[in-house]
Amino acid sequence: xxxxxxxxxxxxxxxxxxxxxxxxxxLKTNHGITPGLAVVIVGEDPASQVYVRNKVKQTAETGxxxxxxxxPADTSEDVLLAKVNELNxxxxxxxxxxxxxxxxxxxxxxxxxxxxxxxxVDGFHVINSGLLATGGKGMVxxxxxxxxxxxxxxxxxxxxxxxxxxxRSNIVGKPMAQLLLDANCTVTIAHSxxxxxxxxxxxxxxxxxxxxxxxxxxxxxxxxxxxxIDVGINRIDAPERGEGKSRLVGDVEFxxxxxxxxxxxPVPGGVGxxxxxCLLKNTVTATCRQNNIDPDT
Length: 297
Ligand code: NDP
Prior knowledge:
Elements: E1 5-6, H1 9-31, E2 36-42, H2 46-61, E3 65-71, H3 77-89, E4 95-98, H4 108-114, H5 126-133, H6 142-155, E5 162-166, H7 173-182, E6 186-190, H8 197-202, E7 206-209, E8 227-230, E9 234-237, E10 246-249, H9 254-258, E11 263-264, H10 271-290
Parallel strand pairs: 1-11, 2-3, 2-4, 5-6, 5-7, 7-8, 8-11
Antiparallel strand pairs: 9-10
NADPH dihydro-nicotinamide-adenine-dinucleotide phosphate binds next to helix 10.
C-alpha cells in the first residue's frame, strides 16, 4: 500500500500559472507592458511539436503575447541565428525559447549562445549557468526550477537535509544540484560512474532522479520518509493495455518507492506540467528585470 503523499504537479502547476496570469495583469495595468514569449521550432519532431503547441496555448492563457515561429528542418544555422538576433532586438519579445533538439547540421551551443541572456527563459546560456553557479540573479532552467518549487511547497525549509541528484546533465542534473545547494542542502551528484548508487540514495532525505532510464532507482533504495522527485519520462511497452500499447514511467520504481517515501511525484502528472509553468514564470521575471520593475508592484 502506498503511504507517500502524492505531489500533484498538475494541480501545483495550475496554481503557478494562476500566479503568472495575475502578474501579467498587474504588468499590463500598472506599467502598460504585455510580456511576450517567442518560441522557435525547427523541423517536425512530433514530441517537440506537441510540447510547443502546449507552450503556445498556455502562454496565451496567461494573457501574454505568444510569438510562434516554425522553420523547416533544412533551415541553415545562419538563418536560425538571424531569427534569434531579430528576436533579441524586438522589444515586444521578453523571452526566447529555441526548442531542442535541433537538426544535426545546426550547432546547438552556437544558437543558445546567440540568445540575449536576459531573454534566455530556458536558462541554458553560459552566462545564466555561471550566474546560477556563483549565486547571481540569472534565469534558472525551467525543469529544475519546477522541482525546487515542489520541494519547497512540500518541505518548507530544506536547510541541512541530505539531497541526491541522480544525473548530471546541463539542463537538469547540474542546475538542480546548484539549487539544492543554494537551499542549504548537503548535495550529492550521482552519475553513470557512481559506485554504490543504492547506498548513496539510501542516505538521502531528498532524491531527484533525472537519468532517462525506466524505473532504475529502486523502491527499496529509498530512505523511509524521503521526498522523491522523479524527472524521468520513459515510454515502455504495456502489453497489459492491449497489443502495441505503451505507457509512461519515470526513473523511479514508483509503486515500491511510494511505500517508503514521505512524498513522491507521479509520472505523468508530476514534474512534467511544472516545466511549462516555470517557463511562463521565467518570462514574467525576464520582463520585470528588462524594465527594472519590482515583480511585486
Ligand atoms: P541526459 O541523458 O542528458 O543525462 C542523463 C544523466 O543520467 C547523465 O548524467 C548520466 O550520467 C546519468 N546516468 C545514466 N545512466 C546512469 C546510471 N546507470 N546510473 C546513474 N546515472 C546514470 O538526460 P536529461 O538530464 O536531459 O534528462 C533526464 C530525464 O529527464 C529523461 O528521462 C528526460 O526525458 C527527462 N526530462 C524531463 C523533463 C520534464 O519536463 N519532466 C525535462 C527534461 C528532461 P553520465 O553523465 O555519467 O553519462
